[in-house]
Amino acid sequence: MAEVDTRENMEHAEHAEHVAHLGDPFMVKVSVTIAFLAVFTAAVGSLETIETAGVTVAKNEAVLLQNKASDAWTFYQARSIKKNMYEIAAANGGPSADDFRKQAKGYGDAQEDIKKQAEGYEHNSEARLAASEGHEHRHHILTIAVTMLQISIAVATIAIITKGMRWPWYASIALGLAGLCTAASAYIL
């Protein structure tokens, strides 16, 4: 999980500002391009971090819900054992047989509610796991987008280093747009 260092993006913007003071109109365009790419990189990097946190939160919630489901199933089994014990006691007859039948019925009635609760926890746990997979998928796409944007900044810098070659600037714009489209696809697809 790569995190974008905001300071690095700001350094790119500062270098672009220094070049802008040279007075060459093309270099000004390159500098402005680098500044915009740095801002986009920081924004997409923040989205990537948010998705990473979403993965962690959703998985933690899924684990907690699964624990609640396990506790509910354990409670269900305990009720089942008690119900069976009262049914056996009632089957043996005696003066308390009717009380034992009532107790067994009470435990049986409560079991259905506990079962529904346990199944609900399991369903919610599965939903949170699915949500974590969605966050993880978006995170991976955003990682690729951030990488493309960072490369576009480096390629634009080549236009400055070579004192005005145009193809690196055009390539950086293309890479930057591809990075932004990739980032957008994380939320569209």
Describe the overall structure:
This protein has 189 residues and is an all-alpha fold. The chain has one domain. Helix content is 90%, strand content 0%. It has four helices and no strands. It has helices spanning 6-20, 25-91, 97-161, 166-188. α2 (25-91) runs antiparallel to α3 (97-161), α2 packs parallel to α4 and α3 (97-161) packs antiparallel against α4. The protein is rod-shaped. It starts with 5 loop residues before the first helix and ends with a helix.
Task: Describe the structure using short key phrases.
single chain, 189 residues, mainly alpha
The total tally of domains equals 1
Q: Which structural class matches the secondary elements?
A: mainly alpha
As a percent range, the share of helical residues equals: over 70%
Our Rg estimate from Cα atoms comes to 31 Å
End-to-end CA span: 21 Å
Counting DSSP E segments of at least 2 residues, the number of strands comes to 0
Q: Which range does the strand content fall in?
A: under 5%
Shape: rod-shaped
Number of helices: 4
Quaternary assembly: single chain
List SSEs in N-to-C order: HHHH
* Biggest pleated sheet: none
Query: Uncertain spans, ≥5 residues at pLDDT below 50?
Result: none
